[in-house]
UniProtKB/TrEMBL annotation:
Organism, as annotated: Mytilus galloprovincialis
InterPro entries: Cell_Adh-Cytoskel_Orgn, Ig-like_dom, Ig-like_dom_sf, Ig-like_fold, Ig_I-set, Ig_sub, Ig_sub2, Immunoglobulin_dom
Biological process, per Gene Ontology: homophilic cell adhesion via plasma membrane adhesion molecules
Protein name: Ig-like domain-containing protein
Entry keywords, A to Z: Disulfide bond, Membrane, Signal, Transmembrane, Transmembrane helix
Phylogenetic lineage: Eukaryota, Metazoa, Spiralia, Lophotrochozoa, Mollusca
Recorded GO CC terms: plasma membrane
Ig-like domain residues: 1-88, 98-185, 253-370
Transmembrane segments: 489-511
Amino acid sequence: MSVHRHDNMTLECAFVSLTDITSFKWIKHVKNVQTVLNETTHPDKFSVSLSGSSRNVLLFKSDFILEDAGTYQCIVSNENGENDDNVTVLIYEEIPNPQVTSKIYPLNLGGDVHLECMIDVYPEVTDVWWMKDDGLIDITDSRYSGSVPEKPSLNISMPTTDDIGYYRCCANNSIGFNCSNNTILGYTPFIINSTDYAEGFIGKSLHVNCEVKSVPKILDVTLQPKGTIFNSDVSNISTGNHRTKFTFMITDPTLQDSGNYTCNATNVHTSSISDTIKLEIYDQSDKHITFGERIIIDCAVESHPAITKSTEITWSLNGSCVNTKNIIKYKQPTPTSLTINNATFGDQGEYTCAVEKDMINGTSGGFLITVNGGKATGGTLDNPNITFTSVEKSDEGNYTCYVTNAVGKRAGNSVYIQVNESMCPCLCSFKQKLEFWKNKNFTKEEMLEYMAPFLKKTLEEMKLEQNKLSKNIRKRTSAKDDRTSSQQIGLVGIVFIAATFGVIIVFDIIAIKRYLLNIREAFNRV
């Protein structure tokens, strides 16, 4: 018969006797070892009972383990003699059944995480590994420890949000392999990125972003101000590595929508709240201006620390940079305003301003300008030339002048107009280097002299320290040691080696002598 590990086992020895029983006993046989079992030998595990009517001898064993497997012999005696019977009890061989002790674990950022795994099976486990989101964990990573048959639990040091996910403990033995149910690490939603500041204008829609990482799936994400809640659609999201970006659109905002907001994320276990998101709504309507008119646009950016005259603001028109270095066309009388002189059709569109410096970070909402008036003049008998007051990319192409009189119509030469779009000004420190080298004209010798300190610094950084090479390190590990303790240990070693070789030589001499005596006796007999 076979018994599962940790189950209870009851063996029954039934017999018929016409006379009174004088004795009975159970004997356990394992290999060549016999153990007599009775209720006094192992009172904590076994019990033996005799029923006069049923004539049964019972043996009970709780919490059956591998050491309890063997052949059990029942011996019953009366005044006429004794008789016996035996049964062999084996333990079931099963595939592993790893068990995780907890379904959820918090993510202790910067600390340590211990994922408990328990495995109790026969035959013994030969291999243990962990899975994360159906991918194998690289146990060679120094952040991981455990995951061995002796210690199947997994330890993660210095966890990050990248460790959020579903984990399973898997094990293998000679019968097969199996994995545990999922356990969740980082069950609290983590809001890893959200808009910290946003601004817009009355009636102009604006967006607020909130990026969340969560296991299990996010059930609800809200943008919550003073009392109104904006809900995000979470029904058809693709979580990827449990990371999802939610975008909230605030349509037709009013001045009352200005204030502090928070992004709230909820899953089946708990909720999380982001840092404060500041939202500012300004009263600035779209404008219609006449061709050639002058207009001033204010950049509605509020920042802490406050914007100063040294703060660099970038302006964009329909997503493309505005070249504010053109002081004839544009002026900035204050750090937060832009003046457009002699407006043309190329100036119409949506303007936005942005500032990025140190702790200042923000982008304004859109401000729409529409330019009314003619686009080109001329092309008449009095003024056959044509003049464009403003050209756009769509005006690029070949232009031909046609002249008609009483005889007929004739075309003149064609002219091609190419429209070059302005490039976005370089706001990085690299621009200063470009301007510096643009105004320089060095000979080779002057260039080497100028570059000398930079080359020296580079050589210092690339210099190879020979005293840190492995061959020098090995020399130091085998260097001479004049300490008294080292000399004493060396002397003991020399004596031990000399004694060993001395004993070997003595035995060899004795053997050679005996061999020579045997040869001499053999010659004497001849």
